[in-house]
Amino acid sequence: MLPARLGSLTVNGRRAMGALEGIVRGVSMLALVKAGRAAPLAAALCLMLPAAVPAETQKAALGGSGDVYANIPERDEFGRDQRAMFRTWNPDPLGTHEANLRALNPWLARIVRKAAADNPDLRFVIGSGRRSSLLQQKAYRWGWSKTPYGAHLSGDAVDLWPLDGQGRILFDPAAQNRIAAAMRRAAGELGVALVWGGHFQSFKGRDRSHFELADE
């Protein structure tokens, strides 16, 4: 765990420290292997990494049931089957939430975890976190991103999707504004600068689901 005082580092510093944290973990585990301590290695892994939560447990905790995309209009403004697009993009957002969270920049993951912990009645799921270049290219081709590059490639951006009472995705602006307020409050308390897509004037709908670490 990095010292709390490092929360005031610039985004480049946080990225470097996040990578350094991973290197330190790797060196520590290698030392265990060289010492012939195979059994303690498994225990060390359990202590160092966030516990993986079974997909069904995650769904139950988030209240998921049925078709998670049932609330989304069947067609987008171009006449495309957007429910099919969402299912292709993220077939199981509730079941993969924890894995997507662990793949983020550690600083961004801390903000998301704190926002959720401090607001237990505010229900949301990661729709998109760290992306491969192929996935980012798909988002660009679909018009879901303004760039074929961006902060998602490094895990420095995340899209948070609100859930209704049945655990289904519901892009309600009021719910998205509450998530944004919770994220900004959590980031402020952690000393991390955060950018909200709701302020992206040039993007359709101002990209209310999007959050990324700020370049300072």
Keywords summarizing the entry:
216 residues; alpha+beta; 4-stranded antiparallel beta sheet; 8 helices; 4 strands; 45% helix; disordered N terminus
Description:
It is a single chain. The chain is of the alpha+beta class and 216 residues long. The chain contains 8 helices and 4 strands; from the N terminus they run ααααααβαβαββ. It has helices at residues 11-34, 38-48, 55-62, 82-89, 97-102, 106-118, 133-142, 173-190; strands at 124-128, 157-162, 194-196, 210-213. A 4-stranded antiparallel beta sheet has the order 1-2-4-3. Helix 1 (11-34) packs antiparallel against helix 2 (38-48) and helix 6 packs across helix 8 (173-190).
What percent of residues are in strands? Answer: 5-15%
Secondary structure: number of strands: 4
Reported for the largest beta sheet, the result is: 4 strands, antiparallel
Task: Count helical runs.
Answer: 8
Topology:
Elements: H1 11-34, H2 38-48, H3 55-62, H4 82-89, H5 97-102, H6 106-118, E1 124-128, H7 133-142, E2 157-162, H8 173-190, E3 194-196, E4 210-213
Antiparallel strand pairs: 1-2, 2-4, 3-4
Helix pairs in contact: 1-2, 6-8
